[in-house]
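Sequence in, structure out. Go.
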Amino acid sequence: MPSSIATSPRPVSQPATLELHSAVRESVVVAIDGGPAGMAALRWLAQRSVEKLLRVELITVIERHWIEMYGDGLLHSADETLEDCASYLADLAPNIDISSRISWGVAREEIALAAVAADLLVVGTNRTHALPRALGGSLPMRVVESVHCPVVIVPEDWTPIPGDIVIGVQGDESDEEALRFAADACLASSRPLRIVHAWDLPLWLDRGTTVARDVSTAVAHAQRVLRTTEATMLALFPEVEVTSRADRGDAAEVLERHAVGAALLVVGTHGSTVLDRFFVGSVSRALLTRPTRPIAIIRPRVHTGPSL
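Output:
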């Protein structure tokens, strides 16, 4: 039985709705610490500003015990950092509305609070390297677990590439908002979408006597996931060029392999359930260990549009 399933691209028409993407400003919060990771996040936003009008708030968080360790000079340093970052972003993208502020408290909590009303949270990460910095280590992962708006994690060595957008789908309700986010990104940037579904068998089935039958069932399910997802995209976003593929293997490894050369990898989650905590802890955590491209983590969100 095959371990990979692929479809051919369907014809794509020229997007008729691209101008709509510049009609409303997207509200974005960016967590800043003045290091290379934060600069990468600002460069990514500058590229996004070519596709969308943006209203950006830069936030840096000072944890209260830091004042005891580093003194009042830390506040002055934070002010300078925000000023420098705002100037840097304004030079890259003069069309962005920029504001900034310092917040006091636990970084994860303050960033999550700032993002409550945001359309998007952007965080840079230095996890392309072994040594952590202020916004490296586990903070991006903790932020992902704390907020409900879409989060884009940008590696500190990010540079623009002309790649397509890849989305990992699970074949359940967790795909809905992720598909919307990915389709919107494709329409705004005129990029194609690659849908990727990873499937596998439980270890005890792999060692059992009914493997052939169970593999056949798994392949049939993967084919249904691809057909259903493509049909949804065709119905709701006919302007987006779509290809899809299902491969057997660990979800994070399959997604990483298919996202080579991609401009953005999009992954959906289930919400705040036990299953979601497992998913965030396994697939997303594995993907964010050493990200080689921006990764968008999308949680379910209440919306007024038609259900997928």
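Check: The first strand starts at residue 4 and ends at 6. The chain has ten helices and eleven strands.
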